[in-house]
# Entry
Amino acid sequence: MAIVIGSNFGYTVFAAIGITLQCFVAAESVSSARKKYNVNYPDNGGGRYSDKLSDEDWVAFNNIKRTSDNYLEQVGMVLVALVLAGLYQPKLAASFGAVYMLGRFAYTRGYVAGGAEKRLYGAYIALFAFTGMVITAGYNAFTTTILA
# Structure
C-alpha cells in the first residue's frame, strides 16, 4: 500500500512546527538565564562562572538549563514519531503533538518553579503523547505491511 500525503498532513506539520518553536523558546530561556545569573560560555552550570553563584541561584540556573537540555535530548525522536504517525493518521498525530507540547509546558513550569520533583506531571503527559505517536506509527506500519 502506498502512502499518499493528503491535505490533512498539514495538521502534523503544524504540530511539528509548534514543537520545534517550543524547543527553541526553551533554548532561548537558557540565554536569558545566562544573562540574569552571569553564567558565560562555555560554562554549562558546573564551571568557573557558576561557582560564583549562590546555592539558590545555581539551582535556579541549572533547573532552567536542564529543561532545555531535556527537550533537546528528546526532540529528534519525538519529531520522527510525529511525522511517521502523521503519514497514516495526521489528525491523531497532530493531537498527540499538541498534548506533547502541553506536557512539555507543564514539565518546564514545574521544573523551574519547584525543581525536579515538580516536573513529573508534565513528564507523564509528554510521555503519554510520545507513546501514542509511536504506537500509532507502529500499528499502522504493521497493518499496512505485515498484515497486508
The chain has four helices and no strands.
